[in-house]
Amino acid sequence: PLPTSLQNEFIPEEVLLSLTNAANAGPCPENLLPPKKIKTPKGTLPRSVDHVWHNPVRRNKFKYLIDHPVSLTGAGRDISFLYDVKYVKGETRESVARDGIIVPHKPKKLTDTLIPEEFHIVSNTGVSGLECFDDKYTTLLTDSENRLLLFPSMKPNKRIEVVQLNDVMDTMLERAGVENQEYTGPTKMHKLLHILKKEQTIYNTVFHELIRQVSVDCADRGELLSKIRERYVQMLDQIARQMIDFYKDMVTQRVMDQRILEELYNFKNVIEELTRELCLVRAHDIKLTKEAEKAHRDLAQALLDAEKNARIVEEYHDLYTLQRERMESDIKQLMAERDIWSSATYELSVKVVSSEINFLFVLLAKRLYLNEKSWNNYTKHFIVLLSSKDTSDLEVERNEEATRERLQSVKDGLVKWQQFFRNNSWVLQESCFF
Questions:
Q1: What is the Cα gyration radius of the chain?
Q2: Which residue windows are coiled coil (predicted)?
Q3: Is the separation of the CB atoms in 327 and 382 below 8 Å?
Q4: For the range 312-317, what are the long-range contacts, defined as Cβ-Cβ under 8 Å and sequence gap of 24 or more?
Q5: 197 in Cβ contact with 157 (< 8 Å)
Q6: Which of 32, 80, 137, 273 is the most exposed place for a label (fewest CB within 10 A)?
Q7: CA distances from 309 to 251, 316, 388, 398 (A)
């Protein structure tokens, strides 16, 4: 109720309320709000239903704005410029008529637009606030905090609405661009999706407001634009999903490529290791080949030396045989001569004894003794010579036996090398093949 000093004066409450709102543009106390005029229903609606809702066929044409509105904060389920209705958890709740003249005012917000509240343009005209009839299909709203909302307007039928909407879109895009520059995601794909999400939200908001403005003049155009918007939203969502799937496939492909590169690197390392081992095997093979060739040359030289030594030994043996035969013949001749001389001496001694004197016999005996002594020395000399020849012959035989053993060991070594090369020939062939 108004103060007592003002109640006694004849001043309309609407004028006092307008002056108060003009002086202070802030929220008005509930006791200063204008009384809400409600007609008591008597079996009929308090006011006639708008013609757009009078026919069910026409009402169904605006269902695209009612059934599937786009909302960011839970708003948008009711279209205020067509009818006034409240939804709570998906259930419609009708306004209940109250008895009395003054109804407390609750601040209301425009719920038929997605444009942020910071871009709303309001104006105070200094006149009485809007009156609202709380029926199901009304097109009138109580203005929020008794201010007239210029943008977004209840009746967007002027060019200024489009210009203001364009400015709002430019401002929102500029802010989104600054935010996108500050945003640093883990990857470029996350940053791109963040940009798409921001811009899609802005375009969706502007498109929704544009559809609302068009639907006031022509519902068919609004319905067509709503279908186009839904198609574009689905297409952009599908593009975003395809981009995410493509990005996942690309990341998977990168992981696979990385694993393939790792496998190739490991394979390259294995090839390098095998190449090094092959080089070592080749070097070892070359070394063994050189050693085998050297052993073969040494063996050939040893065979030549053995053959040469064998020929020398054979020649020495032949020479020794000839020398022995000659010495044996000499000994036989000396023995024959000794026998002759003995017989001659005996005959001479007999003759001397029989014919000459003892002096001659003694002289002859002395000579015979000296000859016998010399022949004895010759015999000893030949015996020593024969023993030395026998010793040299034994030494030659020992050398021949040692040479034979060496040749046998060389032969065994050659057989072993031939067996080794025969067993390892396939390894050499594989190394040459690599």
A1: 70
A2: 289-337
A3: yes
A4: 313/396, 313/399, 313/400, 313/403, 316/396, 317/393, 317/396
A5: no
A6: 273
A7: 84, 10, 22, 13
Q: Which of 146, 84, 88, 138 is nearest to 112 (CA)?
A: 84
Contact 22, 124 (CB under 8 A): yes
pTM value is: 0.34
The predicted pLDDT at position 1 comes to: 46
pLDDT average, residue stretch 59-81: 52
**CA 109/CA 223 separation, integer angstroms:** 25
pLDDT of residue 275: 92
What range defines the domain where residue 138 resides?
4-254
What are the φ and ψ backbone dihedral angles of 126, each rounded to 5 degrees?
75, 20
Model confidence pLDDT, tens digit, residues 250-290: 888 989 999 999 999 999 999 999 999 999 999 999 999 89
Q: Is residue 364 part of a domain?
A: yes
The backbone torsions φ and ψ at residue 43, rounded to the nearest 5 degrees and listed phi first, read 85, -10
- Reference 80, options 156, 145, 28; nearest CA is 156
Classify residue 107: in a domain, yes or no: yes
As given in the structure block, the two tokens for residue 88 are 């709570």
Same domain, 229 and 308: no
What's 94's DSSP letter?
P
The residues that bridge with 93 in the sheet, in sequence order, are 86
For residue 43 the two structure tokens come to 């079996």
H or E segment to which residue 148 belongs: strand 148-151
Q: How far is CA 57 from the centre of its chain?
A: 63
Within 8 A by CB and 6+ apart from 66, the residues are 77, 78, 79, 82
Residue partners of 98: CB distance under 8 A and separation at least 6: 38
Q: Are 209 and 115 in contact (CB under 8 A)?
A: yes
Q: Are 200 and 234 in contact (CB under 8 A)?
A: no
Domain count for the chain: 2
CA distances from 193 to 254, 303, 352 (A): 20, 90, 159
CA angle 143, 86, 100 (to 5 degrees): 65
Contacts of 128 (CB under 8 A, 6+ apart): 14, 17, 18, 34
Phi first, then psi: give them for residue 148, nearest 5 degrees.
-90, 125
Cis status of the peptide bond prior to 152, with omega within 30 of 0:
yes
- Residue 21's CB is within 10 A of a number of other CB atoms, namely 20
| Residue 238 sits in the same domain as residue 318 | no
Length of the chain: 434
> CB–CB of 121/47 below 8 Å?
no
Do 164 and 240 share a structural domain?
A: yes
CA angle centred on 33, ends 18 and 103, rounded to 5° = 150
